Amino acid sequence: MDEISPDVLKLYDNLKHDAACYGLPYGYFGIVCWASTLVSMILTYVNCPLFSPTKWCKPYKRQKPSMMAFSAAMTVGPVIYTCIRCKGEWMSIFMAFGQLTPWSLKLINDCYVTKIGDETESKYRLIGFAMTIILYLAGWIGFEIALLKPSDRNNTLIISITVIVMVISLLCYTACWSCISNCLNNCCSFVLLYILMTSHIVASHLVLAVINKNMMGVPPDWYGQVSAVVFFIGKRLLFLDF
């Protein structure tokens, strides 16, 4: 067996230090968060919002501004907290921003599921489109930082596979954008788009769980636990309205 070089050991120690400040769900907890967001989005798409049974079988409407601001604060707040807490730890910062990708996809989804004016629809589409690409790239960059090791012959393979996945996902995303009304009117197409554009989140959850040796994915410290739970609840509130 090849002896592990001091550089690699140092890198592992640095990664553990970087991941220790992460205040968002990862591991099994993170995958449950990701999957429940997908289920919530699908049910909302077919006019059966999971947490608003009084809205079932009724035309979907975007959240009221007050509810939208509250749910956004509970979703974005823990990400900002993690970035401040992980100051200078770029792996955790990029991964944290990447976790907001489902939020930006919801902005696009809301434009077509709801009947809103052309000007507002165009604004939401552009914001959602740009944010999704930026957050998607941020998530994959964080994932790459976690995997790449100094002087490792597998680095080229890792980069190649990641780039291929990114290119395929972005091509599908762009193709869907070019005929977006047809794409988003098809629930299966939107589910596929969601999975492709949030694939980095699942990958990051698994990497962080391995680095931290914590497959449950609950941060070990109290502040991190509160942040992760708030983020989880915030994502559920994105699909709640009264």
Automatic annotation (TrEMBL):
Keywords: Membrane, Transmembrane, Transmembrane helix. The lineage of its organism: Eukaryota, Fungi, Fungi incertae sedis, Mucoromycota, Glomeromycotina. This is 7259_t:CDS:1. The chain crosses the membrane at residues 26-46, 67-84, 124-143, 155-176, 188-210, 222-239. It comes from Funneliformis mosseae.
